[in-house]
């Protein structure tokens, strides 16, 4: 039986006298976080110096890893609160603005419906693919 095994039985139940511990000096304040803080500081410094080049290299050499990083930092859910009701015409205009900003082409029908029902259904299909 080792010393640790023989003393373990004696210590169980009442390990220390009330008000004292096995380390009377205690853990120095902040010591628990020093390694984490040092690591984050080193990572920060490295990223400041090499971050843009590292991102570009991963994007070109390993696009799958690049996309995984992007997906991991995106929120899991988007909570969108709509405060005002838009008319169909206003909604069509906002969709066109968004499509233009994203350089997407969408059909020219709309709330006015002057292109017919078939094209309207095609547009709805195009817009639903944006989601």
Query: How much of the polypeptide forms β-strand, as a percent range?
Result: under 5%
| Gyration radius over CA | 31 Å
Q: How is the biggest beta sheet arranged?
A: none
Morphology: elongated
Total helical segments: 5
Helix content: 55-70%
Q: How many DSSP E strands?
A: 0
* Stretches with pLDDT under 50, minimum 5 residues: 110-118
Order of helices and strands: HHHHH
Question: SS-based structural class?
Answer: mainly alpha
- Give the end-to-end Cα distance, rounded to a whole number of Å: 67 Å
Average pLDDT reading: 75
Structure report:
This protein has 131 residues and is mainly alpha-helical. It is built from five helices and no strands. The radius of gyration is 31 Å and the shape is elongated. The termini are far apart.
List the helices and strands and how they pair.
Layout: H1 3-11, H2 31-61, H3 63-73, H4 88-101, H5 117-128
Main traits of this protein?
single chain; elongated; 131 residues; 5 helices; mainly alpha
Task: Write a compact overview of the structure shown.
It contains five helices and no strands. The model is unreliable at 110-118 (pLDDT under 50). Helices cover 59% and strands 0% of the residues.
């Amino acid at each position: 039986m080792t010393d640790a095994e023989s003393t373990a039985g004696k210590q169980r139940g009442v390990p220390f006298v009330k008000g004292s511990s096995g380390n009377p000096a205690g853990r120095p304040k902040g010591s628990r976080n020093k390694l984490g803080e040092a690591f984050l500081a080193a990572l920060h410094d490295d990223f400041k110096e090499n971050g843009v080049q590292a991102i570009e290299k991963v994007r070109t050499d390993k696009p799958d890893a690049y996309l995984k990083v992007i997906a991991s930092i995106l929120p899991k859910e988007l909570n969108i609160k709509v405060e005002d009701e838009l008319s169909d015409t206003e909604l069509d205009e906002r969709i066109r603005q968004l499509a233009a900003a994203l350089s997407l082409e969408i059909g020219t029908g709309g709330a006015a419906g002057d292109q017919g029902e078939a094209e309207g259904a095609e547009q709805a299909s195009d817009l639903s693919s944006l989601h």
